Request: fold
Amino acid sequence: PIGVRNFIAAPKGQLIISCDYSQIELRVGAHYCQDPTMMQTYSTGGDIHAATTVVIFGCSYEEAKDKNHLGYKEHRTIAKNVNFGTFYGLFPRGLQKTLKFKAGVVKSVSECETIIRNLKAGYPMLTTWQEETRYEASRRMYSETRLGRRRYLPNINSTDWGKKSFAERCSMNTPIQGTAADILKLALGRILNGLPERPWLKPILQIHDELTFVIPKERLEETVTYIKECMESKPFMEFDLPLVAEASAGETFGTMEELED
Reply:
């Protein structure tokens, strides 16, 4: 097959293997806001997009997971797009544009207002965390990750609404995306510690929350076990949700297939 990703190919007799975190930003966000519904969903291996569908549309969890249920596809598409903007502050017009241009779903501003209102009602601790995070950032003039990396926000108290609003979104974005990056760095440290005993394991790429290696074909199972163990380890004592890393492999970067557990 033709495609840029296929230019990255394993040597003969070897494979490219990739492991990436499943929904790490949503998990980190749930850890921060400690919302009971989010925590319960992730702690029990549930479906966060179905949980958000329930919150937004008031259906049952079973209906939210039923692919044959009327409106399933649109509801799940909306829930997914809402989830990935949930922690950073959603505005009706911004959500309307996101749904239209990213998902092809057309909703009025009033419908988007209802979606956001239902989201806040269904995940009450989310709003509490957002308010506390913005307040702390305005007081300290910075936001930080769980491991203490700071992002300074000089415009957090600006009288210019645009500058202030951007800084407030950064104040919520930094602890989540930054802590997700911290977690990946900690996993990388564990993996690097084990490389001397595994000279055949060759790291080649890091792409956001994904790590990619070249390995001999016969080492596939051993590699998956080792990398997943390093990535899924508890990153720091107070982190109270499971991390999940998903593996895929192939002879080129463009023909990789997900591996079953």
Notes: The longest helix spans residues 161-193. DSSP finds ten helices and seven strands in the chain.
